[in-house]
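Because discrete structure vocabularies remain unfamiliar, it helps to consider an illustrative case, giving the amino acid sequence and backbone structure tokens:
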Amino acid sequence: MKKLLCAAGLGIALAASAGVQAAEKIAIVNVTDIFQKSPQRDAVSKKLEGEFKSRASELQNLEKDLQSKMQQLQRDGRTMKDADRTKLEKDIITKRDSFASKAKSFEEDNRRRQMEERGKILKNIQSAVSDVAKKNGYDLVIDANAVAYAGSVTDITSDVLKQVK
């Protein structure tokens, strides 16, 4: 029985040391830092701004018109004829609903497009991380934000950033 336990213990120790040896070349990379410094990020930001500029402008105009009508109702509501006040109130409700609907649609479309473009940039960063890791012979690359302590592990962030640019 003792021999069996010793053999099992020795087997576990050998397996553990083999596992450590298999992943001996480890590096870390700060993907968030690369994303923030990525030139593609600024280009995408400008692209999306241009893509949504007309809709944003339309929303601003709708908001101004709605505020103007609400101020008119507040200012003149007591002195207006009932029919005119009712018409203005209905107009305000219609414009408010239209604004809310268009604003929601705008936000959803904008968020979706930002996520698409962010995904493309992150895919590019991931490809650069893989290239740098293969070039330098790293077995494992971990995001620096996921590591509590790195010790003497190599940080390849600057190499990846050079490749992304």
Q: What stands out?
A: Strands lie at 26-29, 140-143, 154-155. The chain is about 80% helix and 5% strand. The chain has one domain: 25-164.
